[in-house]
Amino acid sequence: MGLFLFSALVHAYVGLRLVPALAPWPWAMVALTLLLVASAVLMPMGLLARRVQSRALAQFLAWAGLLFMGLFSSLFVLTLLRDVVVAVAHLMQMAGWFDTASIDLADLGVFSAILVPLAALGITALGLRNARRTAAVVAVDVPIAGHVFRATVGWAECRVFRDGLQALVYVRRIRCGAGVDDPSD
Length: 185
What we know:
The chain is of the alpha+beta class. It folds into two domains: 2-132, no CATH class; 139-177, no CATH class. Helices cover 58% and strands 19% of the residues. A three-stranded antiparallel sheet has the order 1-2-3, with no helix packed on it.
């Protein structure tokens, strides 16, 4: 129960900071509120998904919960950053560092309230794309007792034993030798 309460509290903070600023766009207020409610429920469910009996439901809850966790982490950090920027702008205005007639801080609040969820969605989409793409292939040299094992890192697993040492690398192919080219390449 503590996990759900904590989730509800941090989501309420973000909602109280962003939703009222979106008053000019009621549809945006509703959309952000629904997103925050779904996130507040699915984030803890994603962490507790392995307790669900149905494997398909457990996988869905884990996937959705972790996706919302990534989205909310960006949303939370950007909301904190927005609060700092708006507070500094208010302090600068009170100190007389810029003309109050030329810049309306209410517009800054509305603009930043729109920008925060859009930036969080963009960051999450980028993170999801990076997580789902194929990993890069990297060539590495593994020195073991005077020999250099040239490995091209891929998906197969290979254990290399030499003089009692063991190295575990993920390789597609491996060449052995001390500076001698393998004629089979």
